[in-house]
Amino acid sequence: MSETLRDSATSNGTEAAARVIDVLLLFTDGPSTLGVTHIARELGLSKAVVHRILQSLVSRSALLFDPASRAYRLGPAVVALGARSLRDSDLRRAALPVVRRLHEATDETTTLSELVGTERVYIDQMESTREIRMTVEIGRRFPLHAGASSKAILAELPEPELEAVLAAPLGRLTPETVVDPDRIRAELAAIRARGAAVSGGERQGGASSIASAVRWADGRVVGAISVCGPIMRFDEATCERYVPLVRDAAVDVSRALGWNGG
C-alpha cells in the first residue's frame, strides 16, 4: 500500500472512531433513549451513517434497541466499561475515605467530580441520610461555568484553558446561572482567595453546594470534592462552617494523590 493510501486509511479510521465515540457520548446527557433522527441532527451526520454506527454498537452490546419505541439506550458492554473505569480510578480510590469523613461531618450528600476535557462528571457520591436530600447523576457531563464543583475546577485551570471555556457559549441552566464572563472571572478570583466555591441554585434550582478543587501530584487540577443539599439548609452560618471542612478535604485528597503544595 502506498504512503498516500495508508494515510487516507488512517484518517478515515480515525474519523470513524471519533463518530462512534461522539454517538456514545450523546447518551451521557439528556434522555436515556435516543433515536436515529435525534442523533443525526445533534452530530450533523446523515441518518444512514448514524444507522450503520448504531447497528455496529448494538451487535457488540454497547447499545440496546427497543423495537416498540425505535430508540436506543446504553447496553451492558458500556455499563461494564464504566464500572471498570470507576473501579480503577486513582482519584476515586484516593478520595473514598475523605468523602466518607466529609459526609459524616456534615450529613449532607458529598460528591466527587473529575475534569473531563472542558466539562466535568460526577464519579462518586455518598448520599445524606436526611429525608430531604440532594443526589447527583454519576457519569453525566456538566459545564464548568455553573455550580460550585464546576467553578472550583474552572478557577484552577491554566489561563488559556479558562479563557477558552469563557469564550464558548455559556448556557443558562437555571435563572441563577451566571453567564457573563466578566462576572464569572470576578467570582473565580474570590474562589481562589477563599479556597472554595459556594453556589445556590446555579446548576439545579433549590440546591446549594460548596466545593474545592483537587489536584494531581504535579499541581494540575483533576476535579473537585463538594457537599450539597437543599438550599434552605445552606444558610450563611452553615456555609461558613462547611467551607473549611470542604477545603481541608480537597487538600487531603490532593495529598493522597501525591500533591505536596501548600
TrEMBL record:
<dbReference type="InterPro" id="IPR029016">
    <property type="entry name" value="GAF-like_dom_sf"/>
</dbReference>
<feature type="domain" description="IclR-ED">
    <location>
        <begin position="77"/>
        <end position="259"/>
    </location>
</feature>
<dbReference type="InterPro" id="IPR050707">
    <property type="entry name" value="HTH_MetabolicPath_Reg"/>
</dbReference>
<dbReference type="InterPro" id="IPR005471">
    <property type="entry name" value="Tscrpt_reg_IclR_N"/>
</dbReference>
<keyword id="KW-0238">DNA-binding</keyword>
<dbReference type="InterPro" id="IPR036390">
    <property type="entry name" value="WH_DNA-bd_sf"/>
</dbReference>
<dbReference type="GO" id="GO:0045892">
    <property type="term" value="P:negative regulation of DNA-templated transcription"/>
</dbReference>
<keyword id="KW-0804">Transcription</keyword>
<protein>
    <submittedName>
        <fullName>DNA-binding IclR family transcriptional regulator</fullName>
    </submittedName>
</protein>
<dbReference type="Pfam" id="PF01614">
    <property type="entry name" value="IclR_C"/>
</dbReference>
<dbReference type="InterPro" id="IPR014757">
    <property type="entry name" value="Tscrpt_reg_IclR_C"/>
</dbReference>
<dbReference type="Pfam" id="PF09339">
    <property type="entry name" value="HTH_IclR"/>
</dbReference>
<keyword id="KW-0805">Transcription regulation</keyword>
<dbReference type="GO" id="GO:0003700">
    <property type="term" value="F:DNA-binding transcription factor activity"/>
</dbReference>
<dbReference type="InterPro" id="IPR036388">
    <property type="entry name" value="WH-like_DNA-bd_sf"/>
</dbReference>
<feature type="domain" description="HTH iclR-type">
    <location>
        <begin position="14"/>
        <end position="76"/>
    </location>
</feature>
<dbReference type="GO" id="GO:0003677">
    <property type="term" value="F:DNA binding"/>
</dbReference>
